[in-house]
Amino acid sequence: MMQQIATAAGLRYASAVDLNSLLEECRGRILGVVGFGKPSRSPKDVASAWVDMPAIGTDRAFEVWTSTSPVQMQTSGRIRSACNAQILFGCVEIPEDDRTGYDVLIYNDYCRIFDHLDALGYPKLLRIWHYLPDIHRDEGALERYKRFSMGRHEAFVAKGRAISTDAPAASAVGKRSGNTVICFLAAPQAGIPIENPRQVSAYSYPAQYGPRGPTFSRALFTAWDDQQQLYISGTAAIRGHLSQHEGDAAEQAGETILNLRSVTDAAHARGLIDVRQSTELLFKVYVRQPELRATVETHLRDAFGPAPSIMYLQADICRRELLLEVEAVCVTGSGSL
Fold first, then answer.
1. Helix or strand holding residue 103 (H, E)
2. How far is CA 224 from CA 10, 86, 87, 270, 334, in A?
3. Which residue of 3, 73, 238, 257 is most buried, as measured by CB atoms within 10 A?
4. Which residues contact 113 (CB under 8 A, 6 or more apart)?
């Protein structure tokens, strides 16, 4: 059972078997549910999204964001959200539109997200996930992911967000079918962005990666009462701004671990959070092929021990040469998820 303390948001991974009991246990305190794998009916009366992305090792897997206080639901157009006094979870599914460029499509819905957050008093994005169909498809001589980065950047600018200070932790991965799905966490107050000393900040990438660099921070720290959380963005085998170890999954996994260590060390050096003292550590791993799971799991367990919860999904990574990507949520303090 969850401890009844002032924990703004907690995260649990659940199987299809466990989901209903978890929803019942936390009735009225569910911020959001994201399902992965074979399509299934979304839970009623909660902010939920379904991502058509294979869950490795199971038919379906669920990400459940919970609260220790009652939540309120909101709907604005395609956006569904739920919030407590400290944090908001939201999601939106964006239908494909062949008449509209993907950059424009993303720009329009990102602006709607910002308008929704501003109206509710949760203007600061903390963490955002993007699940993009056909991420590598060329559209008018420009890859779809690069068009996505353009639309996101322009929406940040249009809605008065500063790229270097307001960029949240983020992931953007590809799926084979379905609509674009965006899920996000936001708060009344900003978190603290963390960059990785081993990497160029994504928003400062050179023009070879597209007209606009990806608008995200490598990690973002936030704290409530006696609990601290670190949201680590999707992390891959990139050093500086260059991809490393093309075609070698084991070496890419090792490089990814070095980057995870580097960004968590950067947070610790600033006196924010020590991952070694974490009470909860959850990873989500994206791999191009299911057989890569064992390689990544070995590296993660060697680096972080046997305790972390890990979800494995089959996805396309934002760069064609990258085989895997890892994100994480780290929690320290006396609060329990």
1. helix 102-120
2. 12, 8, 10, 18, 11
3. 238
4. 79, 90, 92, 182, 184
Q: Which amino acid is at 175?
A: K
Q: Please, how many CA atoms are within 13 Å of residue 5, restricted to the half-sphere of its CB?
A: 12
In sequence order, the 6+-apart residues with CB closer than 8 A to the CB of 316 are 135, 136, 173, 174, 175, 176, 288
- pTM for the model stands at 0.96
What residues does each domain of the chain span? 10-333
**Upper half-sphere CA count for residue 201 (Cβ side, 13 Å):** 16
How far from chain centre, in Å, is Cα 316?
15
Between the CA of residue 226 and those of 68, 103, 141, 281, what are the distances in Å? 14, 41, 50, 17
3-state secondary structure of 86: coil
Rounded to whole angstroms, the Cα distance separating 273 from 223 reads 10
Closest listed residue to residue 314, CA positions, set 328, 324, 299: 324
What is the rounded distance in angstroms from the CA atom of residue 159 to the CA atom of residue 18? 40
The dihedrals phi and psi of 92, each to the nearest 5 degrees, come to -150, 140
Per-residue pLDDT tens digits for 124-178: 999 999 999 999 999 988 999 999 999 999 999 999 999 999 999 999 999 989 9
